[in-house]
Amino acid sequence: VRGPLAALVTVVIGALVVPDEMLHVAAGLAVLAVLGVGAWLSLRRIGLVDLATGAAAGAGASVGAVGATLTGLPVAAGLPVGVALGALIGALVGAVGARTGRVLGSLASLALGLAVVGAIAAWLGAAGFHGIARLTGGDRGDLVVTAVVAVAAVVTAGAAGRQGFMGRAAVAARAPHIASSLGRRPSVDAAWGGALAGAVLGLGGVLGASVSGSIVADGYGLVMSAGLALAALVGGGLPVGGVIGALVVFGPGALVGGAAPMLVTATIGLAVLAVRPAGLLPQRSAPIDPPREDTGATPPEPRHGGISLEVRDAPLPGGGRLSFDAHPGEIVCLAGPNGAGKSTLIAMVAGEIDDGGHVLIAGRIPPRGAVLRARAGVARSWQRPPSLDRTDGMAAAAREAADLAAARWAGDLLGEGAEDDAREDLVRVAARRPGLVLLDEPAGRLEPAAVVAFARALVDGGATVVIAEHRTEIIGSCDRVVEVTP
Amino acid sequence: VDLASSAALLGLAYGLVGVAVSAPMLASRALHLAVGPVLVVGVVIGFLLSTLGVAAPIAFGVAVLSGALLSALLEPLVLRPLAARNVGDDDGDEIVRWLVGLAVAAALIEIAAGRWLVGRAVRPRPLLGLVEGSGLVVSALLGAAAILVLSVALAETRWGRRLRLLGGSRRAAELSGILPSRTRAGALAVSGAVAVVAGLVIAPVASIGTNQSAGLTIRGVAAAVVLGVGGPVRAVIAGLGLGVIEVASQWLMPGARSDVAIGLTVVTVLAIRGGELRRDWGRAW
């Protein structure tokens, strides 16, 4: 509490002593700080490649600020409108980005931004030019309000960034397939995170329009969005990094006017990023607040009991067919060379690809799709899991204290010396306390002995474990081996 | 007939840009988010030279070379500095840096070109100075030929296979003697050159300026990916679809920007087919 309070007092005092001729510029810099925080939330905290940040600000500026002016309301009345519109755009970017993945998500956000800017141009054209009303009626009052909002945005972003919903949004945006396998809806999770980021941008848009007094639709296009994305990357791992980045990229332009200074500042920003890929400020190692109670470390017992598996005449990539079953309390190995179809079988059972009716789980036809199967108690690991923060992963995988205890047990068992991403992948599996566990070549990146101990503890707890593997150390430790031949 | 021919020509050009951006996409797994500004700069250089009285074939050649050079420069100025330091470092973050870097480069080219163009007299003219009417047909034929040649090059030649190998595994590519930087720069150069050809193809029926650069990027990149990654036939079909939507939106709402219709279409398709496209993307290498 003391840090933000001190920052708030400092900023307010600073705003009160700024010379009159600098008031307008200072208010503009405070607006930049708000926009920088919004971009930081979207790109750095969640991981979306969001090129519609300018559009979110523009929607707030055009409908919130211009709309309030047109209707004769105070600009402050447009703030909630700007927040809502920004949140809507941010939610859309998050939802589509989690559905398509980050690369195609960048195209979706660019297209959405272009459409919004076109719509803003049409709306401003229809409404005619409008001098936008001032926020408070005076330069100093505007500066105090925008500065206070900027501090509030940094504090809010810092606090919200440690909440579970932002961790789930980060997993959904960075690895939608992992989120699905944890029983989450990636689009929904990412939309919530994107909405928060968009809300901050929409708020900044209203403030910026009021401080400037007028807006131009094309000012919210690619140049602004690219600059904000760069600001978020350059700033680094803390919300205040977004502020620093925005001031680096846009600050000189705000001082002298126009976009031309960006030719220098953005180039400097790219150079900074080349030297320090992680940005100026360090990445937080634990974005989410840790649990307050010591949950201990206990092997997981299946949340809903062990789950049997039957696969009947499943087609293999080589043209053959395979039938096998696995029951609670046993480890079954799918053994075979690369390309035989082991991972395809795992994906089929996990619901990532259509099983064609060849799979029965707990004696019944399972629900379709990875999300519903995960919720039914199926968990899987990946051959090449992506790099995700542990606490973000826990936010997506764990819901109860027992889940965290299982995760801690798995972390201890697999050891800190093991390959981080692969270990975290199995930690997430344990945290879900599944009844049917599918491990896809886990020994490729972890010690075979640790993998066997992990699997044996799960079956001792009552789960069913199926391991796709071709390492003899693993195959020799399984209760049954099923040959998968190409 | 005019509307249909405009839609076909626009669509063909967007499809051509789509095939063109496939080259750097295969080599890097990133989208060429600066292709629009590269196209605009190349086309405007061609127009400027024509306006100054330079012979049409020479203006055409210089325009194409300008696009190739500007696009190739993105490798040493953006991709290489922002690449992961070591092979095997987190590729996800590398691609995020590349995408942001390319978007920033697009913004900087847009700003610089906008300032450079202020006050200059530019007279648009059909491709290679061909007369109206037959010029459109020749433009279309040239665009179709370029699509065919580039598609064959990407699918059947050693160059195309090297791009795919580099995008699939940088480590494997290096062990095979492929120089990542030089290969990516080559792919970017080809895409820049072909994008300028596409821009010259549509010059008779579209306005080309810095205000259109982001829209052209979206049209070209969307053509490359919205129906699936890596296929020239899909790129051309998607491009034609975008051309039809653009012309139809201008016909239905003459005062509105076609960017709204195009942008919403792209977002809608990505939202509906997103899961399938994501899996396609993962399998493309």
Kindly list the characteristics that best describe this protein:
heterodimer; A: 486 residues; alpha/beta; 8 strands; B: mainly alpha; 78% helix; 0% strand; globular
SSE topology:
The complex is a heterodimer of chains A (486) and B (285).
Chain A: H1 2-17, H2 23-46, H3 53-70, H4 79-100, H5 102-127, H6 139-161, H7 164-174, H8 176-181, H9 186-212, H10 222-235, H11 239-256, H12 262-275, E1 309-315, E2 321-326, E3 331-335, H13 342-350, E4 359-361, H14 370-375, E5 378-380, H15 390-397, H16 401-414, H17 420-431, E6 436-440, H18 448-460, E7 464-469, H19 472-475, E8 480-483
Parallel strand pairs in A: 3-7, 3-8, 5-6, 6-7
Antiparallel strand pairs in A: 1-2, 1-4
Helix pairs in contact in A: 1-6, 2-6, 2-9, 2-10, 2-11, 3-4, 3-5, 3-9, 4-5, 4-7, 4-9, 6-9, 7-9, 7-15, 10-11, 10-12, 11-12, 15-17, 16-17
Chain B: H1 2-28, H2 35-51, H3 56-82, H4 91-117, H5 134-156, H6 158-168, H7 170-175, H8 180-202, H9 213-225, H10 232-252, H11 258-283
Helix pairs in contact in B: 1-5, 1-6, 1-8, 1-9, 1-10, 2-3, 2-4, 2-8, 2-9, 3-4, 3-8, 5-6, 5-8, 9-10, 9-11, 10-11
Describe the main β-sheet of chain B briefly.
none
State the major sheet of chain A.
5 strands, parallel
Binned strand content of chain B: under 5%
User: Total number of β-strand segments of chain A?
Assistant: 8
Helix content of chain A: 55-70%
Output the number of helix runs of chain A.
19
Based on DSSP secondary structure assignment, what is the total number of beta strands of chain B? 0
- Unreliable stretches of chain A (pLDDT < 50, length at least 5) are none
Euclidean distance between termini CA atoms of chain B: 41 Å
